[in-house]
Write a structure and sequence with these properties.
The chain is globular, with a radius of gyration of 26 Å. The protein has about 550 residues and is an alpha/beta fold. A six-stranded mixed sheet has the order 1-3-2-4-6-5, with helices on both faces. It is about 60% helix and about 5% strand. The protein folds into two domains: about 5-50 and about 85-270 and about 280-415, no CATH class; about 425-530, D-Maltodextrin-Binding Protein, domain 2 (3-Layer(aba) Sandwich). A hairpin with a 2-residue loop joins β5 and β6 (about 525-530). α2 crosses α5 and α9 (about 180-195) packs parallel to α11.
Length: about 550
């Protein structure tokens, strides 16, 4: 039995650790939150939350319900920006559900909550990202409680500090997507799983577990791997009464998500603008992808989503190796992997193995091109590092924690200085176009709808913009090009986030117009064309030379 005075001391330590981590996390995130413009996926989040479908087939568009429609000719940039803004009066939750069903391959809970948030806070870049920041900060107290229960007071400060400043955490907690919400729900589910596994616990624990599990499953389909890890751990705990409680909780979870999951076959089977983006050739790298994903979570690697300058260097990996050596040397491996701590190992490994299994079954390359799909396991990876540090003497623990944080500083600095996400500098593109555009210019944006909208958000409302979404099949070369550039002083072709679709309009313009300028900005290209020079008449016979 722990003395009351010691329990009070541990509680104060936990509160101070959380307070310090919140301050660190807030500082790191505020340095990044408005540094880069939104990229296409974040614009997509705003479209869903405001009730606008973007990824449907052109023939299915219903303009009256806010669906994206590609205008026949140039339209003001303001006409495209409205797809990421609330209407007057604002669309209701039913429109949000419809948009998600038509356009997305994720469940709707995040978008429904974001709908309410943006109606109160607005649809600006910072407002969108602050919603994610708040979810990440809410995760800290839950993570601190898990660290205290599984590793004692010595694990609390490391767990909170690591989560506050890990580069991948800073990146995705300042992104307008559902990943930081997944961290909170996954951490809460694991905490409730520990409670459900204690024989003295009774009452409404099963209901709380089921509600949290349902919330996760209605936020991202790959949350199922976290749920499976928790269910497997509870099932293995025996005896029969615990398994019965698990069965009850699982049934309640199923009932809570059934209203959406009955639509999954129809929803996932729909044609979309970005259909097949996870497809690609099978390569030997897929075999090692699960291990790379798992290790990347431990080192805090944000993956290919950012510039290489923001990738952690050798110091985090070396520090993790030193922690492992210290744990082995002190004979603490068994203590680190036994009992309730096994749940954390399952939480860390199940999403990595699950995405690899997804690739095998569906022939995709998600584990190579979308490492963000395992982000629900990030708190588990950091918690394991914290548990390892807690097994070391105080001086060694502090030194290795400081080394790990120090190894992340260059990545954090690079994130704070980076001007784009996913190599899509919409803000910079808009500034260049605005500084040089004339009243008779037309800008043709070769992209998917969220890319067109993302650029329109950084142009003057009267800028003439022509959407060219090749997947919709609404435009042909040369007829549409000739119509779009007719009477225009200059035609600017912007190619960004086209999801692999070719741009035949570039070759036609190069052959039939005059290339005035060409600029490459990360993954985007800008090409400015003027009218083709008039052909010079050849002198006839007898003409003076």
């Amino acid at each position: 039995m722990v003395p009351a005075r010691l329990r009070l001391r541990h509680r104060r330590l936990r509160l101070w650790s959380v307070a310090l981590a919140v301050a660190l996390a807030g500082a790191a995130r505020l340095a990044v939150v408005d540094r880069q413009s939104l990229w296409a996926d974040e614009v997509f989040s705003l479209a869903m939350a405001t009730g606008h479908s973007l990824e449907h087939a052109a023939a299915e568009a219903n303009a009256g319900l806010g669906d994206y429609v590609e205008p026949a000719g140039p339209a003001p940039a303001a006409a495209f920006r409205r797809y990421a803004e609330h209407e007057e009066p604002a669309a209701g939750p039913g429109r949000v559900l419809r948009a998600v069903r038509l356009s997305d391959t994720s469940p709707p809970l995040y978008y429904l909550l974001l709908h309410g948030w943006t109606r109160a806070a607005g649809t600006g870049d910072v407002a969108l990202r602050l919603f994610s920041v708040l979810w990440s900060l809410a995760t800290l107290p839950v993570l601190a409680t898990l660290a205290a229960r599984l590793g004692g007071p010595g694990a609390v400060l490391p767990a909170c500090t690591l989560f506050a400043v890990v580069p991948v955490g800073v990146l995705y907690s300042t992104e307008g997507r559902m990943y930081s919400m997944l961290w909170f729900l996954a951490s809460a589910l694991v905490l409730l799983t520990l409670d459900l596994g204690r024989p003295e616990r009774r009452g409404l624990r099963e209901v709380g577990w089921a509600v949290t599990a349902a919330a996760g499953l209605l936020t991202h389909y790959f949350f199922v791997f976290v749920w499976a890890a928790c269910a497997a751990w509870l099932a293995a705990r025996g005896p029969a009464p615990r398994r019965r409680r698990l069965a009850v909780a699982a049934v309640v979870t199923g009932l809570l998500v059934a209203w959406w999951y009955v639509l999954v076959p129809e929803t996932l089977g729909r044609w979309r603008v970005t259909a097949g983006w996870l497809d690609g050739p099978r390569t030997p790298a897929l075999a090692g992808a699960p291990f790379q994903l798992a290790w990347g979570l431990l080192t805090g690697d944000p993956g290919p989503h950012v510039t290489a300058r923001a990738r952690p260097g050798w110091l985090p990996s070396g520090t993790l190796a030193a922690i492992l050596v210290g744990v082995v040397a002190r004979g603490q491996v068994r203590a680190l992997t036994a009992g309730r701590r096994r749940l954390v190992w399952l939480w860390w490994l199940a999403p990595c193995a699950g995405v690899a299994l997804f690739d095998v079954l569906l022939g995709t390359r998600a584990s190579l091109v979308a490492p963000r799909y395992v982000l629900a396991a990030l708190p588990a990876a950091l918690l394991l590092v914290a548990l390892g540090l807690a097994r070391l003497p105080g001086a060694a623990r502090a030194a290795l924690l400081a080394l790990l944080v120090l190894g992340w500083v260059p990545s954090l600095r690079a994130l704070a200085r980076s001007e784009s996400r996913a190599f899509e500098p919409f803000r910079k593109i808009g500034a260049i176009l605005e500084s040089s555009r004339g009243a008779s210019d037309v800008m043709i944006v070769h992209s998917i709808p969220s890319g067109v909208i993302g650029l329109a958000r950084h142009l003057g409302g009267d800028a003439a913009l022509a959407s060219w979404v090749p997947q919709l099949g609404r435009r042909v070369v040369p007829d549409d090009l000739e119509a779009l550039e007719a009477g225009r002083r200059r035609t600017v072709l912007v190619i960004v986030h086209a999801v692999g679709a070719p741009a035949p309009q570039e070759a036609w313009l190069r052959a039939h117009a005059t290339l005035l300028a060409e600029v490459r900005l990360e993954a985007a290209r800008l090409l400015a064309f003027g009218p083709a020079p008039a052909p010079t008449a050849r002198p006839g016979p007898g003409t003076a030379r």
